Amino acid sequence: MLDSGIIGEEARRFGFAWILLCIALALHVTDEALTDFLSVYNPSVQAMRKRFRFLPLPVFTFRVWLGGLCVAILLAFCVSPLAFEGSRWIVWAAYPLAVLMFGNALGHIGASLYRRCIMPGTYSSPFLLCASVYLFICAQGITHAA
């Protein structure tokens, strides 16, 4: 556990950023589920797999997709006390998670611009984008404060 002071404040901010990303991801998954994301994702993956046979992209049933994401979000919430402590491994895990969620959000927004219609998952993407940037910045703050 980190001491109070600058590092403690950075850990508190990082923990808040972690929770914010968890909430943003839960909102994003809800958005995708309500706007039938898999009806766009699965055919796209099947087309890519025909063209690029080396890509190991999975096709999902709704139940498996939603269940897996719910478990992941639940686990992320469960480790949030470690984020508030500034645990090293969770700070380092935050970097790829933030980059992945940033790319995910940009993908939804970019696909909507490209196809000139609102794609599934786009409504929540700005929140996910902001939360991922904030988590990345807070991870850097705690990394540099230590």
Write the layout of secondary structure elements.
Elements: H1 6-34, H2 38-51, H3 62-78, H4 80-85, H5 88-115, H6 125-145
Outline of this structure?
With 146 residues, this protein is mainly alpha-helical. 79% of the residues lie in helices and 0% in strands.
Keywords:
single chain; 146 residues; mainly alpha; 79% helix
Terminal Cα span: 12 Å
Q: What is the helical fraction, as a range of percent?
A: over 70%
Strand composition percent: under 5%
Run of helices and strands? HHHHHH
Number of strands: 0
Which whole number gives the mean pLDDT? Answer: 93
Can you characterise this structure?
The protein has helices at 6-34, 38-51, 62-78, 80-85, 88-115, 125-145. With 146 residues, it is mainly alpha-helical. The protein has six helices and no strands. It has one domain.
